Structure formats: structure tokens, C-alpha cells
Amino acid sequence: MVEPAILITGGTSGIGRATAELLHERGYRVMVTGRDPETVARAKRELPGDVVVVEADARSSPDTDRAMREVGDRFGHLTAVFLNAGISRPAPLEEVQEADYDELFATNTKGQFFTLQKALPLLTHGGSVVFTVGVGVTRGSAGGSVTAASRGALLAMVPSLAVELAPRGIRVNAVSPGAIATPIWTKTGMPPERLEAVTAAIAETVPLGRIGDAREVASTVAFLISDDASYITGQNVVVGGGIA
To answer: Whole-model pTM above 0.85?
Structure first.
């Protein structure tokens, strides 16, 4: 039996880290990447000692090559890849800067696509790929056009990649989180009382009446890469408490 091993991009915080913790508990060998030195250092301190933590920028081809060499040296193969790295740059149309546009597509789209390309030789027959997309791709929000477009490009790739990789026994799916409690909320710069009010207001728009937990998204990813989902490919699973 092939030992389960997963690479998680953007795995040093939030949904990626929650997925790393869950899958490690379930016996996976886990490697996570991240580009923020602070979250990388924290992950190295706090994640189990046998989780491999690598500082790597999804926009950088040399960083990705280095990460793949590390995977090959440490694990020898991959049974799953969770392409979760991503950034958000909300801005009204008239305020969008070309540099921000380029960074969003370089990180959210190009970086994830070429990470998959370079991981492919390591993926075993019967392996699984999951992209993080997000409900913003199909449920519009003011100021979110470029972020949504960069993630939406991934969603557009999923059906074609699923067909292309099916002969290799590799399944390709996407997960779309809705409003999930992650460290990204604290990076808005809002004072605590304002952040609490905004969070409560968003929770009121969710049919289930609350913000989701990163572990709930992680559980969905764990299902999609498991044998229980062996006949599911080319799909997008929304984890949004009823938000479509």
C-alpha cells in the first residue's frame, strides 16, 4: 500500500494549516509551503515535528522547483496536492493598480498551475488534486473582481484537468470556502470592536447563521482526496453554510 503523502501550498496558516493538522492526525506525511517568514516560523514551532515546512513563494519558479526536490527527497512520491496558496487585494475598479493585478494572477493562478505541473511526476496513480477557489468567484462582491477572476481561472481549469489526468487515475476537484474564520480577518487593520461588528454582520448573511471554521474546510479536502471520493472528479464543493 502506498503511504499517503500530501503537499499543501499556503499551508502555514488558516485553511492550509488546518488541513495539514487534520491529515497529519490521519496518518499522512505532510509538507506545507508558505511565503510569509513569520507564519513559516510559527508553523515550524507549532506543527508536529515531522511536518515539513518550507518557505516558498508560489510566484517563484525556483522556489517551486526547490519545494519539489524537497518532496522527492523526503517522501519520494505524493498521493495528493492541495493547491491552497492565494492572496486577496480588494479594491474598487477605478483604484486597481496594474501591479496588484499582476500579483494576484501570478500567485492565485499561474503559481498554482505550475506547482501542479511540477508536482505531476510525483503524483501516484489514484492521486488527487484539490484547488482552493472560493464563493467570491460565483457570488459577486464589490471590489472583488480581480481576486475573483484570478481564482475563477482555476475553477475554469478544473473540468479540463480532470479529463486530461483521468487516464493517469488522478482526480481533480475544487473547494470553495465561504466566510471562514482565518487569520486574514485580523490583517484588515480594523480595530477589534469594528472587526467583531463586521464579522457579526457577515454571519447574519449566512443561512446557517455563523462564520465557518477552517477545520470544516479541511474536512472537506480530506474527503475529496480520500478513497470515499474515488468517483468524484471535475467538481467544485462549496463550504459556505448555505451561501451558493
So the answer is: yes
